[in-house]
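On clarity, I found the account of how folds are encoded harder to follow than it need be. Since the whole study asks how a given chain folds, the encoding of that fold should be made plain. For the editor and my fellow referees, an illustration may be useful. An entry of this sort, consisting of the sequence and the corresponding backbone structure tokens, reads as follows:

:::
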Amino acid sequence: MAAGFRQGDQALLIDGIAVTASAAELNTLDGVTASAAEINKLDGAGAVVASGTQASAIAAPTGGTTTDAEARAAINSIRLALIAFGITASS
């Protein structure tokens, strides 16, 4: 891998390609093993839902004549993921 510096436009070159990322961006990616395609899938994930507004909180499952612990655990996991990604408000 050849590295260099092109003085005319102040570019750091790696294999003849100008590096346009900031030092902070490079440090953020240091040690990441994901592919570019995997990172691109995450672009904007969890930022704002499609409508542009956050949905109301989803209540935890309660009540009912039959309590299904596995179903409740699954529902709670989904609720927590929606909250973690900022899609719904926390309760």
